[in-house]
User: Fold this.
Amino acid sequence: MADIDDDELLDALGVEVAPLKTSSRTPREERIIAGFEDILRFHQTHGRAPQHGEDRDIFERLYAVRLDQLRKLPEAQTLLAELDTPKLLEGHEIATVDVDALDEDALLAELGIGDETVEGDDITVLRHVRSSTEKRAAEEVADRTACQDFERFHPLFEQVEQDLQSGVRKALRFGRDASIADGNYFILGGQLAYVAEVGETIKAPNGENDARLRVIYSNGTESNLLRRSLQRALYKDDTGRRLTDPNMGPLFSDEVEPEDIETGTIYVLRSKSDHPFVVQHRELIHKIGVTGGKVETRIAGAENQPTYLLAGVEIVATYKLHNVNRVKLEGLFHRVFSSAQLDLTIEDRFGKPVKPREWFLVPLHVIDEVVQRLFDGTLAGVTYDASEASLKGCD
Assistant:
């Protein structure tokens, strides 16, 4: 049999060969279409466009951002017209974007589409692959579903809210204690979260221990995210908080419990200055401050510092802080005693006038009363009446 080429063989068999269609679209257009197809699949599944919101699934939020960007691109309106049967792009203001001036990276940044190709394929044939950012987000955020037995947990959330209002529990910035265990409460994304179950210990890809959690949220949903994912979410959330247990003890105490986290010391000082006004009112003039270290170290060299009235000082009272933001607490003290702030100007070593802060005309017993009210949660609305040297607004 004489040698024949492939075309002749196919012709002899009666097989018609249709020429391969080549795409006339640019790589950029292919990526726009691929990104929009994800949004269409979401619409087909859920019957609506993806929406923004902290309570939304991470991918829905990504698709919502992508849809916003597509609506701004005039080129996308024309390119996606035939695909956009749900009219997701219509009825929205179109921004003027010079797409021709955008390079590939800039366009992808506009659309939020990952820049991935299938290794070994022609560089002009692009496929949509989830970006590494999307993959990491998926690992850290588990889908929330309706909690079928929420009636079991609803009373717990009500009790916790009462505990917060009464001061039995405190909301602490997450990070000082990053542990997560059964029965822990947190605030994440503005919602109360309760760790109902901690699963068996598993090995994470990096070799560290992890566990699958059952977390119940106060809005009646739950998730099964990993413990390390919850930790990362709490770290990233500026409002992320851990709620203390009711039996964690007082805010200030001479006895430190093992589970307490010492965050500093409130100190009350009395000046040894020979300034005539200080000498006359020495028993009333006190400096109130907070330090994270030793008070003795803080006041070292006081006689050379204008903030200490360029004189030595005497420590007359200290209160240990546990599980408290010392900076905010110091501001709270100064707010309560603002009407009694010492109005005194002295000259520093260079003859420059200085007006020290944090000094107040307040008796020591009143300072101690404020501390006790901080302890029992009754300081809200309380002010200091300097004319009567007493607290006002007390119940």
Q: What stands out?
A: The chain has three domains: 27-136, 146-243, 262-392. DSSP finds twelve helices and 15 strands in the chain. Residues 262-392 form one domain. Residues 338 and 384 are 8 Å apart (CA to CA).
